[in-house]
Amino acid sequence: MMTIYFYGSNREIVAENVKKCYSMIKKYGFNAAMGKIKLVGSEDLTGERLLKVSIVPKSNAQPLSIDNWMLNTEEVTDVNERATAKAPVDGQHRIIAMFILEAEGLLNFNEEEMTETVKKPKNMSLALFTASINNGRPWNYKDFGKSKLQTGNERIDYIEAQIQETGLKSDVIYSLYTLGQPEVKANVAKDLKMGINRLPKSLKLDATTQELGDKVLKAFKSSKISESTYDNGRLAKGFKLFYNEYKPEISQIQQLIALIDKNVWFDNQKPDGSAEAKQYYKNFEKWFQYMNESNNKSEETA
């Protein structure tokens, strides 16, 4: 690995970004076509505070790894060293990730193939040049959704397909397809596509949870509740809170959703302002109690 230098006007290092770079390179390897690490030389570093970087274990009790690293820096004042130094104007996070991968024996760093030296325009400061190179917007969840990339998790891929097929909000579909499970946010799919697994350890998705999600979604679609009303992340989260508390049978869920009228709210349950998930939960609870009381009365009179 080449000696690593950073300069004072570059961005702060974000550990989370290093981890994402590490996961991507570990899974797919380094591909120069996707962008070499761009370096600036001594001429462009004139007047900049130059730092020599060491990447070391945060805890000496464990070897260097993506979960155990920190940066030590030392200001470079030697004229001869400054004359030969090069620092990344784009790729700080990747070069840290690659250093760790090389230390783990998972990458062979080749400076000629993996870096390129660039020069800033004469009428532009290095800080502005750095900002202009790094102004690309990272892909967000919607970008990844359009890409049709698979996550590698059969159940999550199915949930993602339902989002694309129905056009409903991602947080609605995730709530309905993870009933009885911990909270799962849509961004976990983006991370999975990048090789980062952030699924809750207690999450257990299977054919049963998938079938339940299908039936609940179908119940909402065929109910008196309009799509614009149930396509609401807070309503869906409130329904999930209700389900996790009462664990009703699917037949009870179907009866409950069919019972609810189009304005959704049980008597005196509608809040004055925008409803929160807990208020929707209480509302489903009231409807459920009303349904059970009505069922009991019907049995008594039968």
CA-to-CA gap between the ends?
Answer: 82 Å
Main sheet specs: 3 strands, antiparallel
What percentage of residues falls in helices of 4 or more residues?
A: 40-55%
Question: Beta fraction of the residues?
Answer: 5-15%
Gyration radius (Cα, Å) is: 27 Å
The neighbouring-strand order within the major sheet is 1-3-4
Would you report the number of β strands? 6
Count of the domains: 2
Low-pLDDT runs of 5+ residues are none
What does this structure look like?
By secondary structure, the chain is mostly helical. The chain is 48% helix and 9% strand. It has 14 helices and 6 strands. Strands 1-3-4 form a 3-stranded antiparallel beta sheet. It has a 3-stranded mixed beta sheet with strand order 5-2-6. Helix 1 (15-28) crosses helix 3 (92-103). The radius of gyration is 27 Å and the shape is elongated. It comes from Phocaeicola vulgatus (Bacteroides vulgatus). This is DGQHR domain-containing protein.
